[in-house]
Amino acid sequence: MSRTTRVLTVDDSASMRALLNHALSTNGFEVSQADDGVSALEWLAVNEVDVVITDINMPRLDGFGLIEQVRGGTRHRDRPILVLTTESSDEKKARARAAGATGWIVKPFDTDKLVAAVRRVAH
Amino acid sequence: MSPEEIQQIFFAECEESLAAAESGLAACQAGTQDADTVNAVFRAVHSIKGGAGAFGYVALQAYTHTFETLLSDVREGLVAIESKLVDLLLRALDTLSDHVEAAREGGDAPADAALISEMEASMAANAGGASEAVEQAPAEPEVSEPASYDSDAESSSDYELDLDALLDDLTAGFDPAPAKAAEAAPEKRWKVHLRPHSGAMRNGSEPLLMVREIASLGGECVHCDISQVPPLDAFDPAQGYLGWTFSMPEAASEDSVREIFDFIGDDCALAFGDDAEIPEVIIVAAAPKPVPAPVAPVPVSEPKAATPQASAPVAAAPQPAPSPVQEPPADAAAKAAPGAPPAPPAGGQSIRIDLFKLDRLIDLVGELVIAQAMLVQRLGANGITANEELSLLETLTRDIQESAMSIRAQPISSVFSRVPRILRELASSTGKHVKLDVIGETTELDKTVIERLGEPLTHLIRNAVDHGIESAEDRIAAGKAPEGTLTLSAEHRSGRILISIADDGAGINRERVLAKAVEKGIVSADAQLTAEEIDNLIFAPGFSTAQTVSNISGRGVGMDVVRQNVKDLGGRITIDSTPGKGTTFILTLPLTLAISDGMIVNVGDQTLVVPLASVVESLRPGDGEVQGLGSNRNMLNVRGRFIPIVSLRSALGASSGALTPDEGVLIVVDTESTGQAALLVDEIQDQRQFVIKSLATNFRAVDGVAGATILGDGRVALIVDVDGLVSNAAPGQERQAA
């Protein structure tokens, strides 16, 4: 069996991060957390990751801004990034996709769907 | 972390979000209506909604959904910000606060139907685009459940170096055997054709994973179209040259296949049905290559623009698939969407720490300060003073202390931000509209102080509006503006914080206060009281000036409770009232509870600390100011009022020290239970800050002693429990009041 899939969760809400952390780590993922886009970039600068899950609305640097920076960089350019969205409308999906997201997780999520989404994109 | 703990975090966040929304809306009301402000309010409500959904607070989620949608419309400029709207948003926020409370306490959700329809009406009236928001039920289940995620998906995580599996995937199409087997099977199978194109590999997507997922649903590859694979020298790994046809078992639904491709949408052309064909290949120049795009004259950075063509063969699939492939309203919207909205200004990053750890740090810093002072004293005794290293150590120690204190510090705005709501509620119940002025809301003070400040502050504000500010008619008659003004201010002054609550009302009606106090037996009818003393009567237990007990400030708690609350915080409250002009309550509070101010006094060979919060004044009695009462009691005449003199020597059983007032100094102190008293001590040594150590924890509880502290010279000094000492020493009628 290969190594554990490493997930970075980015959300300014500590409770949402805790929920993600709980759901993912109980399913065997290795979870790190960042509380907004800026701290996510700082973390990514010195760490490796397999999947990034990010909220969209955050202070300092929002989710789309984070994706733009990651895609514009070199190191994590091809990393799958899932966005947390409260709506599953086609418009929102298209927007997330256009912004460079690999996929999305609709909030509120249930653990199965979250894990499925992460596995679907984890290289 | 348990789910309960996560919920606790959520509710703490709700409080922060509510305060942020409140201050944002207050800014809107004051005229600051820029994008950042509106966005901050939106984000606050959005964040509550997210958590509400995650924790299953359906009512809260449903309510925040409407609220958020309205805010979203405001943010998008669909709904104009005008005072009526801000008013609606503020009321919506009040109800949101009630919703959060209900969710936390497990109580009934507040009635919000009227407010929701009002918000919806506001969206409909302003935009006409509100219908989408209304029909989108918040608790609506989202994308359909994935069929299954079993061991196959699990194993996909190790494919990274699994070349065999990779080859199997690629060569499956070259082997006609499985296809025949599938067609020969009696089971009714159906076909899906797919061709991921270049876009499917954008954004970190990996089509191979999707192909594998199809296989995990029971799909078998019956055909792999390799006709488009170019010669090796023209091969671009970012392009999708391959197309597949899978034979799916009947049990696998079309939806479950679509679900797999949900993320990449139209970047992978799908066609369903036996007669459909693998969609045509679309080659788009990869971004860095200077090759002209063969398909469409679009900017190379927008490969997505090629997708409309991709959808054509899908839509034209002759076999009537259960439902045509959904085309997202895609490109226009995608292009219109800005890549990234400007990041709002830094909202202050934070880290959550267990309060216990923080208190431990603060305690240790307190010890450090003492140790440093001891060192200075010890070295001084050996003739080592004015030493450079020593003064550096002193500066550093002080800096560390200030930094440690500031960790616990929070801006007082978290308390002040609740005031607008209180005023709105008061406005609707009393009809008195009051304008709020806030000064110094960024002033910081200890978190514990802040938490315990809310109640007394709320009471003082209710009191100011209810009793202080006159009705609009009375105000006009008095030549004032019909709308009263309440001014809240906070400022640091010499190591303490001053909070004032000022109204421009009628001022304290001293005649009525005095009459009431006499009637209640608080003072005697012939007492000669100064204006200040009369004002202070409103703090007496059981005093209420309202002629009818209103439901606003007359809630069973009087101003005496307010004073007690403030005193518990180591603070004091004073009144400054001018008839016709208004009343100001001034709260003087310590910056932190960990360190207090005290008067260091000597009694015989003992050094004691009297908490400054209790001290009113200190004096040496003049001739005739002390009157004997019985054999061994003395009374002090303070401006016409007699208060008992308590000798600390006899109260604490010290072996030496002043026994009669002319031998020492009197410290007039305020006590809750027995009113004022004068403590007799030998001399007052100093006034300084001290760290309280519990005697009960380290030794045992001792009557008359509140705790201990370590002095600069390393000696332990006991802190006098003023209340306990005075009531023990005065066993008369005062004792009954205790």
From TrEMBL, chain A:
Chain ranges of the Response regulatory domain: 6-122
- PTM annotation (4-aspartylphosphate): residues: D55
Any Pfam family matching the protein: Response_reg
Q: Which InterPro entries match?
A: Bact_response_regulator, CheY-like_superfamily, Sig_transdc_resp-reg_receiver
Q: Name one GO biological process term.
A: phosphorelay signal transduction system
Q: Which UniProt keywords apply?
A: Phosphoprotein
Organism listed in the record: Novosphingobium mathurense
* Phosphoprotein keyword on record: yes
Descriptive protein name: Two-component system, chemotaxis family, response regulator CheY
UniProtKB/TrEMBL annotation, chain B:
Q: What UniProt keywords are attached to this protein's entry?
A: ATP-binding, Chemotaxis, Kinase, Nucleotide-binding, Phosphoprotein, Transferase, Two-component regulatory system
Q: What is a GO molecular function of this protein?
A: phosphorelay sensor kinase activity
Q: What class of enzyme is it?
A: transferase
What is one GO cellular-component annotation here? cytoplasm
Q: What is its EC number?
A: 2.7.13.3
Task: Give me the reactions it catalyses.
Answer: ATP + protein L-histidine = ADP + protein N-phospho-L-histidine
Thylakoid found in the keyword field: no
Instruction: Provide ranges: composition bias, Low complexity.
Output: 130-150, 298-318, 328-338
- Specify the CheW-like domain's residue ranges: 595-731
The answer on whether this UniProt entry bears the keyword Coiled coil reads no
Query: Which domain of life does the protein's organism represent?
Result: Bacteria
Q: Which residues form the HPt domain?
A: 1-103
List-wise, which residues carry Phosphohistidine?
A: H46
Extract the ranges annotated as region (Disordered).
126-155, 296-346
**One of this protein's GO BP terms?**
chemotaxis
The residues covered by the Histidine kinase domain are 388-593
Cross-referenced InterPro entries, in alphabetical order? Bact_Chemotaxis_CheA (IPR051315), CheA-like_dim (IPR004105), CheA-like_homodim_sf (IPR037006), CheW-like_dom_sf (IPR036061), CheW-lke_dom (IPR002545), HATPase_C_sf (IPR036890), HATPase_dom (IPR003594), His_kinase_dom (IPR005467)
Q: What does this protein do?
A: Involved in the transmission of sensory signals from the chemoreceptors to the flagellar motors. CheA is autophosphorylated; it can transfer its phosphate group to either CheB or CheY.
The name on file for this protein is Chemotaxis protein CheA
